[in-house]
Amino acid sequence: MANSRKGLGRFSPGSLYEGFTRSQIYRSVIRNPWPNNARTRALAVMNSVFLHLQPTRTRPEAIKITYTWGLGGISFLFFLLLTITGVMLMFYYVPTVPDAYNYMKELQGTVSFGQLMRNVHRWSAHGMVITVFLHMCRVFYTGSYRPPREFNWVVGVVLLFCTFFLSYTGYLLPWDQLSFWAVTVGANMAGATPYLGELVSLLLLGDKSVGQATLVRFYTLHVIAMPLLTALFLSVHFWRIRKDGFSRGL
Amino acid sequence: MAATKPQGATPSRREMIDRLAEQRGQAQVSVSRRRANTVQVWPHLMIRQFIATVVITLNTLLLGVLINAPLVEIANPEKTPNPSKAPWYFLNLQELLLHMNPALAGVIIPSVALGALAAIPYIDNKPEGTGVWFYSNKGIPVLIFSFLYTLIAEIALVLIDAALPAKQWIGGLIRGVFGVPKDDSAASFQGQLLEALSGWFFPIGVIVMLALVLGFLVRLIWKANKSEIVIAMFTGFVASYVLLTIIGTAFRGHSMSLLWPWALGETS
Questions:
Q1: DSSP B138-159
Q2: Residue at B76 is within a domain
């Protein structure tokens, strides 16, 4: 233990580390003792801004991988990956017609790791849509939507819509033939809304057809509006799990 | 620690349901008794989360290194590619578009689907069995049956519609009943009746009939209760989504004609 080395002086083995961990700088940043026993580990979870969403104790059947396959958590992980790679891409992309396409070419050809960031962004997007869908199936087939968890299921359906919309708005940004016409097909479907069709189409596209207004609109939706909205609903979604109780207790 | 593993072998479904019901009842009991069957989140849950994070991140990175995201020629409003496909998660809707009125396929059906999804917990609202996969003994057979039923019914419908489009035979029926020559313009009475029947009534009728027949069969064969009928409907929805996405991706080629995947050809 640290106290048993009192007589050894300032430069004996181990005292640098202890000196540092007892310094004001260290103790002002890291408030908990090293998490190596039940008490300190519970403290580490409880006092951490990132971890305190979780309880300090849980039931063993609740954390069996074959119960949830971690699908909700993996969806969230994909969301984080998308945010990080998305921010990287934002440094080199501007939503102008037709230069957006040239920015994509630059990202892929000139920017260091640009191609990798774009690829990871795309794969994470596909991954998120798939995992979110599988997560919905898991929650359904385990009956985890029943009272008292009904509202969380509804929040989940809203998040499903957010995921699809995020993916759809992002699809336009490369401004290539795939993007343009895929979005046109989707917008035509939305424009077929009974009675409100023209209004919906104008709201979505910002113009009579897909163009500069659409690109700016989709860019804004994709990089800030929808992520903020999704983060808001995610907060409620996670909070409800703690308040309603995880479906296998705690 | 008394229970870092469940006692004995993996509990059966019935045991699991009983144990969870007992746990729910314990919410009013003292903390120390509730604590008895728990483990620490750090390390038991954290290690699982950490491994999952590392595995998924590395795999995504690997995919990103190996396979490039597509970037074809610059957007050209004058040049429509053929076929012009939506992103894969909307291909199922685009498939529906080929068989019914666009407002029905692209707006009403997805809205109703999302609404029905959101309404599930208000229909199946008894907590018995929550927390167990396929929470009744009939759950798995009902699921398999619903999945196969939906698959077969929808493949049959797509093939029939490809061989004999509804517009054609309903149009022929109208002309036969009224004894009039062909006049399909949108303004004419015949055109509007054709659209109403082939674009709205017939598709809605088919979908509703299929759902009702599924519910009826499940009730008949397994004496399914409300929960199990909801399982059947949800499985039907998932099977539709998956099947229509596969058809849209691999079986629709030039002008969205039905083709074998190897005969799909390039996008022009």
A1: THHHHHHHHHHHHHHHHHHHHH
A2: no
CB-CB under 8 Å, A153 with B120 = yes
Q: How confident is the model at residue B205, as a pLDDT?
A: 95
Specify the number of domains making up chain B.
Answer: 2
Structure tokens at B261: 């995947």
User: What mean pLDDT, rounded, does chain A reach?
Assistant: 91
The parent domain of residue B153 ranges over 88-261
CB pair distance less than 8 Å for B45 and A63: yes
CA gap B101, B138 in Å, rounded: 37
Which residues of chain B lie closer than 8 angstroms to A126, CB-CB? Answer: 88
B39: nearest Cα among A65, A51, A62, A58: A58
Same domain? For B124 and B215 the reply is yes
Residues 133-172 of A with CB under 8 A from B: 133, 136-137, 140-147, 149-150, 153-154, 157, 160-161, 164, 167-168, 171
The answer to whether the Cβ–Cβ distance between B74 and A175 falls below 8 Å is: yes
CATH class for the region spanning A60-244: mainly alpha
pTM of the predicted model as reported, rounded to 2 decimal places: 0.90
Determine the average pLDDT of the residues in A12-38.
84
Contact indicator for B70, A178 with CB cutoff of 8 Å = yes
Measuring CA to CA, how many Å separate A122 from each of A85, A116, A249, B151, B203? 9, 10, 36, 30, 35
Residues from chain A that touch B75, judged by Cβ atoms under 8 A, are 97-98, 101, 175-177, 179-180
Span of A35-49, A174-188, B251-265 with lowest mean pLDDT: B251-265
B31 touches chain A (CB under 8 A): no
* Interface predicted TM-score of the whole assembly (ipTM), two decimals: 0.88
Best A185, A204, A240, A242 member to test B by mutation, with max B CBs in 10 Å, is A185
Profile chain B (268 residues) by mean pLDDT over runs of 10 residues: 52 81 69 76 92 97 95 93 89 92 92 95 87 85 96 95 89 84 76 88 95 95 91 96 94 88 79
